[in-house]
Amino acid sequence: MLTFLNIVPAWQLDGGHISRAVFGQSGHRFATVIGLILLLAAGYWTFAILVLIMMSFSRRGFAGVEPLDDVSSVSNLRKVVYLLSLVMLVLTFAFSPL
User: Fold this and answer.
1) pLDDT tens digits for 66-92?
2) Would you say the C-alpha torsion 64, 60, 36, 28 has a positive or negative sign?
């Protein structure tokens, strides 16, 4: 369950940092919305509300913290690792208690 919650591509969670690196700032916003919907669909609405509250108190909102190096592109190998993390998200979602 902790792996599922941490790898959700939303805001400041690890999955959110990865999605920002792969998709950029606008893709990160879209991934955050999808991640929040995923949390709600999985029945973790209290965690989704907590993330929304934390986002509302943040100065940057959906953007979160910017990386130190936002100029270099992400290599293809790292994109494959991101896809594997999405597979891990799906597998942990399937076995998480609802």
Assistant:
1) 666 667 788 899 889 888 888 888 887
2) negative
- The pLDDT tens digits for 17-27 are 888 888 888 88
Residue 2's alpha-carbon distances to 8, 38, 51, 68, 88, in angstroms, are 10, 15, 15, 27, 12
Output the DSSP codes for 8-34: S-STTSHHHHHHHHHHHHHHHHHHHHH
Inter-CA distances, 52 with 43, 49, 55, 85, Å: 15, 5, 5, 23
Global confidence as pTM = 0.73
Q: Are 74 and 22 in contact (CB under 8 A)?
A: yes
For residues 9 and 31, is the Cβ–Cβ distance under 8 A? yes
Task: Name the residue type at position 7.
Answer: I
